[in-house]
Design brief:
- By secondary structure, this protein is an alpha/beta fold.
- It contains ten helices and ten strands.
- The protein has helices at 42-50, 72-78, 95-105, 114-123, 139-152, 169-184, 196-200, 220-224, 227-234, 238-242; strands at 2-13, 16-27, 31-35, 57-62, 65-66, 80-83, 157-161, 188-192, 205-210, 213-218.
- The longest helix has 16 residues, at 169-184.
- The chain binds adenosine-5'-triphosphate and magnesium ion.
- Residues 13, 18, 36, 38-44, 85 line the site of adenosine-5'-triphosphate.
């Protein structure tokens, strides 16, 4: 059974259709990449999956259960977590306190799980920064904190929204290593990213979105070779070339 299944999901803002009949599924333990031009509707898809925005039509199943009408907190407790494109940690709190808040949000248990939070900071390379205010972190550290906060909610499905955006090549490589570790621990991942080589180091399948629609879905090499994808990314009109 897929961990997540979208069937014909659509969303409009006024006259603008941002998600247009999107259907796809991801199996338990798999990693899926999403690419597409700016404004294509990628982050909106995460809003719909995470429940911060409601779909207009279509259904979303998580572990076979229809979650289309449930709120974001319920989906988080069910095991869906995300990182945001622009990190917004609690800047006045320490890194460790940020983790404790996320841990408390992700569970209905009442006790604080400090050891667990420390372990996640270790896995995400932030342990040396545990007592620093989150507002003092570098961009890479903020991105790592986004990942750590999402992991603190104990996800089965992790949604990463351009977590490598703005990083240097070396920083990106180091973050990719951390994300691979998360994937290898059994968490399913959907990762939106413009940096295709970073994505393909982690994911086994790519979905391409353009104007709110899926225009390609499959193995990275074959997806990147599809004429419609070349047209979007390289501006190559394949029909013109053939003529
Ligand atoms: N809450 C909203 N109200 C109105 N329009 C919105 C809303 N959220 C997104 N949009 C519009 O929907 C379109 C898709 O936005 P979205 O953020 O999903 O794109 P994206 O693919 O994530 O782009 P980027 O690569 O730049 O992050 C854009 O035109 C955006 O302005
Ligand atoms: Mg976006």
């Amino acid at each position: 059974m897929p961990i997540l299944e979208l069937d014909n999901v659509s969303k409009s803002y006024g006259a603008l259709t941002v998600t247009d009949g999107v259907s796809f599924a991801i199996e338990q333990g798999d990693a899926l990449g999403i690419i597409g031009p700016n404004g294509a509707g990628k982050s909106t898809l995460f809003n719909l999956i995470g429940g911060t925005q409601a779909v207009d039509s279509g259904t979303i199943l998580f572990q076979g259960r229809d979650i289309t009408a449930t709120g974001a907190a319920v989906r988080c407790h069910a095991g869906i977590a995300r990182s945001f494109q622009i990190p917004h940690p609690f800047v006045g709190m320490t890194v460790f306190e940020n983790l404790l808040v996320a841990d408390a949000f992700g569970t209905t248990e009442r006790h604080v799980r400090e050891d667990r939070c420390r372990d996640i900071l270790d896995r995400t390379g932030l342990l040396p920064k545990a007592n620093r205010p989150a507002g003092s972190l570098t961009l890479l550290e903020r991105k790592r904190l986004e990942l750590a906060r999402a992991l603190a909610t104990d996800p089965k499905l992790l949604l990463l929204d351009e977590i490598a955006g703005g990083l240097t090549e070396g920083e990106c490589r180091s973050l990719v290593g951390t994300i691979k570790g998360v994937r290898d621990s059994g968490v399913s991942i959907i990762w939106i990213e413009h940096i295709v080589h970073a994505l393909t180091a982690v994911v086994e399948r790519l979905v391409v979105i353009d104007y709110g629609r899926i225009v390609a879905n499959g193995l990275p090499d074959s997806v990147m070779a599809e004429p419609v994808v070349k047209e979007i990314y390289l501006g190559i009109d394949v029909d013109d070339q053939a003529a």
